[in-house]
Amino acid sequence: MLDANLKNQLKAYLEKVTQPFEIVASLDDGAKSRELLGLLEDISSLTDKITLHTDGQDSRTPSFAINRPGEETGVVFAGIPMGHEFTSLVLALLQVGGHPPKTSQELLDQIKDLDGEMLFETYYSLSCQNCPDVVQALNLMAIFNPNVRHVAIDGALFQDEVESREIMSVPSIYLNGKPFDQGRMTLEQILAKVDTGAAEREAKKLSEKAAFDTLVIGGGPAGAAAAIYSARKGINTGVAAERFGGQVSDTMGIENLISVPKTTGPELSNALQAHLNEYDITVKEHLRVTEVSQGDIKNITLSSGEVIDTKTMIIATGAKWRELGIPGEKENVGNGVAYCPHCDGPFFKGKDVAVIGGGNVAVEEALYLSNIAKSVTLIHRRDALRAEKMLQIRLFDKTKVNGNISIIWDHVLEEVMGNDNGVTQIRVRSTVDENKKQVLNISGVFIAIGHDPNTDIFKNQISLDDSNYIICDEQHPKFSTQTDIEGVFAAGDVSDPIYRQAVTSAGSGCMAALDAEKYLDALK
After folding, report:
1. What pLDDT, in 10s, does the model give residues 107-118?
2. Is 340 a catalytic residue?
3. How high is the pLDDT of residue 249?
4. Greater pLDDT, 333 or 367
5. Which residues contact 73 (CB under 8 A, 6 or more apart)?
């Protein structure tokens, strides 16, 4: 099952195991059970710390539990965790085997203190880059709290469950049989939902702290760069971010970050967070800013209710997927309307899907989905694409004989139609002749029409342009990243409607940090 190179890597990892444990497999006579058995035999052969049993009685087959002798840890994989989930498997093996996780003692104590029986079920796909965060977080909770149990389920292998629960988006999380949440979540975010007293404890801690010199809002390349540069200057720095990486986390292939020939969004996001952790920076993740009060000391209220004081603020909130705002769009998000093909594409295997847009993202999505779906229809409002030339060449190759991509030019999506079982049809309208419309039988719609800056909270406080991007005073004699509010700076996609690249965002984050430092020096 595992090639020689992967075996050698895994063997090196398993040398970190300090205590014996068992893998208990539940199998049937099917091909997937034989495939899983081969994987588990390969793993157990790499160390004498693992004992493999094949007499499991789990109702889901193929599946396996990872337990300590005489003790169920509550960690179960239903399916064959390869692809993005192989890392989740390796971490579970190490952590059940006694290797300490790279998690703060504070979070581990919070996990141990959770009360009540919790059975989590996570439906994932092997190509989903957001799913491992959820799987790994819930596995960790199960390992460190005997009241928590977690089953990670490959939706592709358990289609009956996926259909009965009407799951069309991953990761989808259930708690004690009821929907808990969808989408990327990390440990802190999950704990915030199940530990109702956590926000109050955190608010009390922050109220006892002095005001930050600089508070960075956002955790993408711009926010991380701003925080790191500030901390390196000895400035008392804090970060409030909904998630590290921002939109970068949703990008599968990154090949234009200078000095890094190729990486993925999740890898870059993890690297940003790891770099940030090298410095004395107070981090508040998975929280939104809900209110900002200006003054010599700025007061920032978070979605948890916490209030943070800071002398300067760097806004690096980035941008979000742009919505069409048409009938049926919001009603069918997670029910056939999607924005991330790598997360949700596998649920449309063998089905007819549409991609809306004409830029790089739209073409990349169409190419990716063509390997999964029965057919892909790219719908673009103009008669020419805006995507890079190389991407267009690859796309047009796929539209030729035996290709499964077609293009509808000069049309826009007007309506998405569906029912409780998902999207069934879409209506498109010509941009040349408004009376020309057509209805297509489509099961999935992937919208890739650009982004909007995350500036809603700052409206009526900071000057924005007509597209709601923050306006910076580039002609300012001292601070080119300063907004029209003293001591408030902006960096990255939230103030950049033109370049919108990870490398330019990081550069502007550096500039904002240096501007904030100069501003603070002038106050002394």
Report:
1. 999 999 999 999
2. yes
3. 76
4. 367
5. 65, 66, 67, 96, 142, 143
Answer yes or no: are the C-beta atoms of 422 and 335 closer than 8 Å.
Answer: yes
Compute the distance between CA of residue 323 and CA of residue 341 in angstroms, rounded to an integer.
Answer: 15
Q: Which of 154, 309, 344, 493 is catalytic?
A: 344
**Interatomic CA distance for residues 447 and 321, integer angstroms:** 9
Q: Cα 455 from chain centroid? A: 20
Question: Is 3.40.30.80 the CATH classification of the domain at 4-195?
Answer: yes
pLDDT at 242: 86
Query: Which runs of consecutive H residues, i.e. helices, occur in 153-196?
Result: 159-164, 187-194
Q: Could you tell me whether strands 451-453 and 298-302 are parallel, antiparallel, or unpaired per DSSP bridges?
A: unpaired
Beta bridge partners of 482: 489
Q: Which fold has domain 201-320+451-523?
A: FAD/NAD(P)-binding domain (3.50.50)
189 closest CA partner among 285, 105, 268: 285
* CA distance readout (Å), 498 to 35, 466, 508: 49, 14, 13
pLDDT for res 251: 66
Considering the candidates 128, 343, 472, 510, report the single residue annotated as catalytic: 343
Query: How is residue 44 written in tokens?
Result: 């157990």
The alpha carbon of residue 89 and the mean position of all alpha carbons in its chain are separated, in whole angstroms, by 19
- Distance, in Å, from the CA atom of 376 to the CA atom of 265, rounded to the nearest integer, reads 24
Topology agreement, domain 201-320+451-523 and domain 330-447 = yes
Contact 346, 155 (CB under 8 A): yes
Q: Among 361-365, 427-431, 448-452, name the most confident range.
A: 427-431
How does residue 202 score in pLDDT terms, banded at 50, 70 and 90?
low
469 is written with which tokens?
A: 């991007």
- Total residues belonging to the chain: 524
Q: In angstroms, how far apart are the furthest CA atoms of the chain?
A: 75
Name the catalytic one among 131, 340, 472, 510.
340
Task: Give the model confidence (pLDDT) of 244-290 as tens digits.
Answer: 888 787 665 677 788 988 888 778 988 998 999 999 999 888 778 88
Name the strand (E) or helix (H) holding 97: none
Q: Angle at CA 138, nearest 5°, toward 79 and 14?
A: 70
Please say if 154 is a catalytic residue. no
CATH of 330-447, one of 1.10.8.420, 3.50.50.60, 3.40.50.1000, 3.40.50.620: 3.50.50.60
pLDDT for the residue 515:
96
Q: Which DSSP state fits 478?
A: S
- What are the tokens at 170? 């991953």
pLDDT of residue 491: 97
Domain boundaries, the chain: 4-195, 201-320+451-523, 330-447
Q: Closest Cα to residue 500, out of 248, 261, 185, 239?
A: 248
